[in-house]
Amino acid sequence: MVVEMHAGLASDGGSKLKMLLTFVDALPNGNEEGIYYSIDLGGTNFRVLRVEVGAGSVIINQKVEHQPIPEELTKGTTEDLFNFVALALKSFLEREDDQDVKRALGFTFSFPVRQNSVSSGSLIRWTKGFSIEDTVGKDVAQCLNDALARCGLNVRVTALVNDTVGTLALGHYYDEDTVAAVIIGSGTNACYIERTDAIIKCQGLLTNSGGMVVNMEWGNFWSSHLPRTLYDISLDDETQNRNDQQSQQGFEKMISGMYLGEIARLVLHRMAQESDVFGDAADSLSNPFILSTPFLAAIREDDSPDLSEVRRVLQEHLKIPDAPLKTRRLVVKVCDIVTRRAARLAAAGIVGILKKLGRDGSGGVASTSSSSGGRARGQQPRRTVVAIEGGLYQGYPVLREYLDEALVEILGEEVARSVTLRVTEDGSGIGAALLAAVHSSNSQQQVPI
Ligand code: ADP
Ligand code: MG
Q1: Residue 65 in domain
Q2: For the CA atoms of 97, 101, 102, 108, what is the dihedral angle to 10 degrees?
Q3: Is the CB of 45 under 6 A from ligand 1?
Q4: What are the pLDDT digits (tens) for 49-59?
Q5: Distance 247 CA to ligand 2 centre (A)
Q6: Boundaries of domain holding 8
Q7: pLDDT tens digit sequence for 195-223
Q8: Residue 133 to residue 74: CA distance in whole angstroms
Q9: Within a domain: residue 358?
Q10: Residue 120 included in any domain
Q11: What residues have CB less than 8 Å from 45, skipping those under 6 apart?
């Protein structure tokens, strides 16, 4: 991971890690005041948020509205998708009725974007099942601005941010030791604060703070050191047909909520083909994506002695009645293995970032810079906070346990104690609103990171 991070920072196309510049060189620190809005478009759900903040990291008021994105809009036209988003903001604002508020709008857009500035950037490609061809290459902030204008709203995007960056912003708002953020939801990704002089591909890049948030797009990470199973290859084939993403998002496909249930389904399907553990009633196992990740989690977390929850999921969702206890145990084991691998890979990725920042306790490479946090022998490891968000991480305690366990295993107990993973609820959206605050033109809050 660290090698690929260096390569991605050295040149565009130098690595499967895109290491995208975000132009975010100042993060909220708790002094922001006022009412800000944001829109979070990133996968399963779509959110509109209103955040009212007061000095001293106080969120006075927040309102979040969730809406599922109609499936057909993820495969339709650019205009339809952005009209939907703009109209949702419009009806939200009408209900709010605070007409005289200055509306700085943060736009969380959780797909790979090549930014030109903090408030503009073009879509590199869709991920997570979206495929609207004519959006690729377009400035998505402009697409939203156009849609906002079409529905008569006098609001424009102030900050266009990735969900990881929003999450980092909210983490930093509460705790200035926050240096990285990770999303583990439908997809997975991470960002962190890099020194501008380490961003070789952009020589001469200057920021007030000497730092900039880099969006790794780590979902696309791949390495020949990662063992890939038959099931990973089948999953890749399935999604290739659906989304033209051959061999893309390889890391994401082993970790995130969109895929874990399907990996387990592929394993169970093969078991059904090659043995009689499921009797004759396992036809449904040939349906791609029939086992969603929340059900995989429910199976793994069933601690009843007779695995009654497993029985229920098999019956109701996979149409497999009467699986004997021994078979139910086997199903739990499969779900456990898929979960454990995901958690351990995510943990390894986090350690990669800590290593790049010189905060993994090894005290090596990065310790040449005083701000990088490397430590000399015998010193206490520096406190490090990683903000985390995502339905899979938040909704699945076993995955969290495995992740923590792996961190301790790789870092050792002492260093692991200096690392805090902090859940930032709705961070991607609230963080974007706070970034809109930091980057809105009449703001005096430009405090460098
Ligand atoms: P997004 O990543 O689309 O912004 P979320 O962060 O809310 O959305 O993550 C949604 C994903 O989290 C779902 O696709 C689902 O796979 C997973 N998820 C949600 N709740 C649970 C749960 N209780 N157990 C396991 N996975 C869950
Ligand atoms: Mg999200």
Answers
A1: yes
A2: -50
A3: yes
A4: 999 999 998 99
A5: 23
A6: 2-179+425-439
A7: 999 999 988 788 888 999 999 999 999 99
A8: 10
A9: no
A10: yes
A11: 66, 67, 68, 69
Return the ligand 1 atom nearest residue 44 CA.
3
Which tens digit of pLDDT belongs to each residue from 316-329? 999 999 899 999 99
What average pLDDT does the chain have? 91
Strands 20-21 and 211-215: antiparallel
Ligand 1 center from residue 184 Cα (angstroms): 8
When mean pLDDT is compared across 136-150, 375-389, 432-446, the lowest value belongs to 432-446
The per-residue pLDDT for 369 is: 44
Ligand 2 midpoint to CA 119 (Å): 19
57 within a domain of the structure (yes/no): yes
Give residue 325's pLDDT: 97
**166 in contact with ligand 1, CB cutoff 6 A:** no
Overall domain count for the chain: 1
For the CA of 399, the closest atom of ligand 1 is 25
Alpha-helical segments (H) within 18-100: 78-96
Pairing state of beta strands 211-215 and 188-195? antiparallel
- Kindly state if the Cβ of 391 falls inside 6 Å of ligand 1: yes
Is the model's pTM score more than 0.85?
A: yes
Residue 194 has a pLDDT of: 97
CA of 378 to the centre of ligand 2 (A): 40
At residue 367, does pLDDT exceed 50?
no
Is 288 a pocket residue for ligand 1 (Cβ < 6 Å)?
Answer: no
Which amino acid, residue 43? G
Q: Assess whether the C-beta atom of 186 lies below 6 angstroms from ligand 1.
A: yes
Distance CA 137, CA 157 (A): 18
Q: How far is it, in rounded angstroms, from Cα 218 to Cα 5? A: 9
Q: Which residues does 427 contact at the CB level (< 8 Å), separation at least 6?
A: 166, 167, 169, 170, 171, 181, 387, 389
The structure tokens listed for 64 are 């979040």
Sequence-ordered list of residues with C-beta below 8 angstroms from that of 407, at least 6 positions apart, any chain: 347, 350, 351, 416, 419, 421
Between residues 80 and 441, the one the model is more confident about: 80
CATH number at residue 98: 3.30.420.40
- Which residue out of 293, 296, 309, 400 has the highest number of ligand 1 atoms within 8 Å of its CB and is therefore the one to mutate? 293
> Residue 372's pLDDT is what?
45
Give the per-residue pLDDT at 151.
92
